[in-house]
Each structure stands twice: as C-alpha cells, then as structure tokens.
Amino acid sequence: MKQKKAYTRIVFIVFIIIALIQVYPLIYLFDFSLLQNNDFYVSGIFKIPDPPQWINYAKAWITGNVPKFMFNSLVVCVVSIAATLFLVLTMSYIFVKMEWRGRKFFFWMMLLGMMIPPHTTLIANYSLYETMGIRDTYFSMIIPYIAFNVPFGLFLMAGYLKTIPTSMIESAQIDGCGVFKTIFAIIGPLTKPALSSIGITTFINCWNEYVMASTFLSKDTYKTLPLSITKFTSEHGADLAAQFAVMAIVAIPAILIYFLFSEKITEGIMAGAVKG
Q: The CATH number of 64-275 is which of 2.40.40.20, 1.10.3720.10, 3.40.50.300, 3.90.930.60?
C-alpha cells in the first residue's frame, strides 16, 4: 500500500513538472510583453517588468492594426470552419454509409492528406494563386486551411459515424428523407461531439497560422492577425516589446477557446478514435 502511494506521488510530481514546462512559454510570453525594449538586452531567463509597460498593448492594438487584422482572421476562420464541417459531414456519410465502387481507395487517398506537411505546398500554391489571380485574397488562405483540416476531420468523423446503425438511416429514407435531409437532420445532431472537436481544432489551426499567411498575403486589406507582428519590424531594428504584446493578443483567443472547450475536444477525439 505504501509503495502504491509513493508511486502515485511520484507520478503526480512528474505531471506537475510537465505541466509547468508546458505553461512556461505562456508565462514567458506575457512577461516579456510588459517589458521595455531595453530590458531585452539584459541577461536573464525571466525578467520582472518594473513597472509593467501596459502601453505595449495599446501600441500593438493601434500601430499593429489589430482590429482590421482580427476581422480578417475571423472571416477566414469562420468560413474555413463552416466549409470544413460541411465537407467532413457529407464526405464521411458518403464514404461510410453509402456503397459504391472504389470508396475505400478514395477514402484512404483523402486520409493521405494528413501525411503532407502544409508548408511543402507553399511554392506550388503561390504559383497557382498567381495564375488564378486569387493571391492576396481571403480565398488564398481559406482554400489551404480547408484542404489541410478536412483529412483529420474525415478520419475522426468516419470512426464516429460507424457507430450509428445503418437501420436508422434506412428507416429515415423509407419515411421520405433524401440524402441531404438524412445527413443534416439525423446524422448531424448525432455527431455533435465529433463536429465540435473538429470545429475547435480547425479554429486553433487557422487562427495561429503564420507561414502561409505571410507567403500569400502582402496587402493590409487581407492580412490576418498573426501578421500584425510585421508592423514592428524594419530595417533599423524591431520593437520587441510590441511584438510580444501582439503575440499575446493573438494567443489569448486560442487559449480561451481551448480552456473553455478542452473537454469537448477530448470527448470528440476519444469518441471518434475508440468507436472507430
């Protein structure tokens, strides 16, 4: 019994250490966002702001054009989430509940998208968008965000959908439900945990993305929130304090979403993985 208690304490301490390691970058981020620029050139891993420079956030909000860029991020995220959920729900129904030749092959081809690093497509997409004339538009961000979030969502939803009895769908069709009514009136409500998880993870992936946004967007009209950091970089140097403030502003919505809906994320992923 004593050995079991000692083992439990050790595991608890290990988890506490891991949690502190995970949380430290956030503490570091918010701490540095309240420093003066001169403080960055003083040695030390952790610096205490004296006094805290809350003006950094005001500077980030105004000079960084945060309201406009935040609106752009919301547009891109909302459209990407809506399109991803629509495609995931309809495609998972087609692959799992409908019989047709080659469905397994095409299903696995779709899942291969999870193995493609998104940033390996930057050059090809840049050239394609230039040819199509859609670079520096919302579409240049929405298209790749959907493309790289659908495979994971499809994998999760397919596993969840397998648990829904086919007899339920057949009964609905006998009562006169068409394909789309079956999907959105019956399958949709039954798969809310998986849809919630997919929607939240898609939001986090889109909201924090920087590399594709910095590659495809050069006009302030369409730039997303992470690109606000570029407003404080010039050939003469960088306003590091303001950059940290921008990064803190970018991080806050994602952190809040994760803490508020972390249980739903876990529930949806576990349901899709275990039931599949």
A: 1.10.3720.10
Spatial distance between the Cα atoms of 253 and 255, rounded to a whole number of angstroms: 5
Structure tokens at 254: 């994602």
For residue 38, what are the contacts with CB-CB under 8 A and spacing of at least 6? Answer: none
pLDDT tens-digit profile of 54-88? 998 998 899 888 999 999 999 999 999 999 999 99
pLDDT digits (tens, 9 = 90+) for 186-208: 888 888 888 888 998 899 899 98
Q: Would you state the structure tokens that stand for residue 67, as one six-digit string? A: 């309201």
* pTM for this model (two decimals): 0.85
Longest dimension (CA), the chain: 74
* DSSP class per residue in 18-72: HHHHHHHHHHHHHHHTTS-GGGGGS--SS---SS--THHHHHHHHHTTHHHHHHH
Name the residue type at position 256: L
Alpha-carbon gap, residue 268 to 152, rounded angstroms: 12
Question: Does 49 sit behind a cis peptide bond, omega within 30 degrees of 0 on the bond before it?
Answer: no
What counts of helices (H) and strands (E) characterise the chain?
12, 2
pLDDT of 243-274, one tens digit each? 889 999 998 888 888 778 766 666 655 555 54
Quickly tell me which residue has 């809906």 as its tokens.
261
Query: Which residue from 215, 217, 164, 214 is spatially nearest to 188, judged by alpha carbons?
Result: 164
Q: How far apart are CA 158 and CA 84, in angstroms?
A: 14
Given a contact cutoff of 8 angstroms between Cβ atoms, the answer to whether 212 and 229 are in contact is no
Q: Give percent of the chain with pLDDT exceeding 70.
A: 91
